[in-house]
Amino acid sequence: MSPLRHFFVTLFLTFLYQLHANAEPAPYPLDRPALTVHLADGQRLTFSIAQLQELPQASIQLRTSEGATQRWLGVPLKQLLRHIPDADNGRPLHTTALNDYSVLIPYEDIQRYDPLVAYQLDGRFMSIRDYGPLYLIYPFDDHPELHQQMFYNRSIWQLSEIHVE
Fold first, then answer.
1. Position with higher pLDDT, 134 vs 19
2. Three-state DSSP class for 78?
3. What is the pLDDT of residues 75-121, one digit of tens each?
4. Strand partners, 120
5. Which of 84, 107, 136, 163 is the most interior residue, by most CB within 10 Å?
6. In Å, how far are 13, 28, 35 from 141, measured between CA atoms?
7. DSSP 8-state secondary structure symbol assigned to residue 130
């Protein structure tokens, strides 16, 4: 191969690599199970994003530290629990993320703040790389008392499991 041709092939391959590296991450497939709910009796329910979209929707708007506004869209956790047998029982929920991070969500939080199981941020579905496909988010801007580390810790990204006790 001539040096000039080798140069152009290398340049072309570098260009293709950069295109791929800068490409948007693929969103999570809407029909693949995204959330598993473990019931107290040992049964499991799974929800895809498409199934979650069929439930009543809500949105939360939050301001970032830079002053930008984010719009989160999803299912209020309170609404989701109404579609799960014996889940709206006054007990805390044990939530787990894809990276095995876990946190308890007190029942009082669900009733008072109605956190959102979000699957879209600013009109785009979230990929796993972008902390999706599901993110349990609290309405921080609507309740100043939520601006505490305890509540930030309860906003779990890459939410994958809910254990109902």
1. 134
2. helix
3. 999 999 999 988 888 999 999 999 999 999 999 999 999 999 999 99
4. 73, 125
5. 136
6. 47, 28, 26
7. T
